[in-house]
């Protein structure tokens, strides 16, 4: 006799299990689909978000025109890198107008629109800078001690410039932030065969008339890299090379530059760098500073035994007011203001379309046109400066030693021309004297960033 009742129960049980498996499988498929949809939505949202500025950043605009500050995304050289050194600024794609624009913090945008360096003073924690707290590096003693005389050959053996860079950093108001830097950071190799690096005597001389008058000095260098292996046994024979090193004008800073904004819009406290270049009987003054720098400049001239009738050129790199405050201190034979040259009662205009540079009273000193700050701005280029090489003094073409490439739009007429002029100077210089602060060495990275 067949038990149909038990068979029926078993079939019902199998159907329930099969139905349960189908439900579980369906739930797994639904969950998997939801995960895929979530991933796709997240990717789409992220890509859409990446077209604009990141969280916390806003598009930066020009103060005068209210237009976006455009840039070139993924390019080596763009305007974003020069806007601020302390604040985060990056090039991002603007989804609304399909442009690459500079993005920065809201504080930086306010700084651009109000011309007050809010981010800078937030980092300092105060807005007051006292005159007595200015630190001017005294590097003359250290540099003189670093030059060793080779009395046997009556020649000078000049060491590397590690001590110079360490001492140069003492101008910072915050000593804890000073990082000792060596020359290895500026070159690809630690061994130097074909390039001499020796301490600068910038601002180290006590009397410019005691400087050597030779056009060049011979330096005998013994280097391990110059050892030549000869013979079957690999015997080493020491070798040496003698380099002719031309000496050019000596550079001195008569008065250091300083720049910081006041507590209201469109107010600044400024002192500009006043530079002296002297080679034999050729004496050149570059920029004259603000009127309240007069006493500092007078003291520096007296300490260097420089007199009024010895100055050949007084050069004003551009017509901004803070470079012309002490012209009466330098009644030189020739006064150069941008592209105009005055000699007594005769005035001429330098024809830049006929000549790439205008030579001064020494073959090592010349001026070139570098528009940007104004249409006729110029830069003084000094070649063969002892310990420095080629030095460029361009007034406010470069901002300060703390932020060399900052763009202060209140004192600039043409951004594009300014960037082109900066590239020109960086590519031809070893050192740059900015408007505010101490000379800055031009590193290989700077030249690479400028596509030199």
Describe the structure.
The chain is an alpha+beta fold. The protein has three domains: 58-124; 140-199 and 213-246, no CATH class; 248-449, Metallo-beta-lactamase, Chain A. 24% of the residues lie in helices and 23% in strands. It is built from eight helices and 24 strands. The protein has helices spanning 4-50, 106-114, 118-124, 140-146, 162-168, 294-303, 415-428, 444-449, and strands at residues 58-59, 90-94, 99-104, 148-150, 155-157, 216-222, 228-230, 235-237, 240-246, 250-255, 258-261, 268-271, 274-279, 282-286, 313-316, 334-337, 340-343, 346-349, 358-359, 365-369, 378-385, 389-393, 431-433, 440-441. The strands form seven sheets. It has a seven-stranded mixed beta sheet. The longest helix is centred in the first third of the chain and has 47 residues, at 4-50. It is elongated, with a radius of gyration of 32 Å. Residues 116-232 have low confidence and may be disordered.
Keyphrases for this structure?
452 residues, alpha+beta, Metallo-beta-lactamase, Chain A, 3 domains, 7-stranded mixed beta sheet, 6-stranded mixed beta sheet, 8 helices, 24% helix, elongated, RibonucZ/Hydroxyglut_hydro, MBLAC1, transmembrane, membrane, transmembrane helix
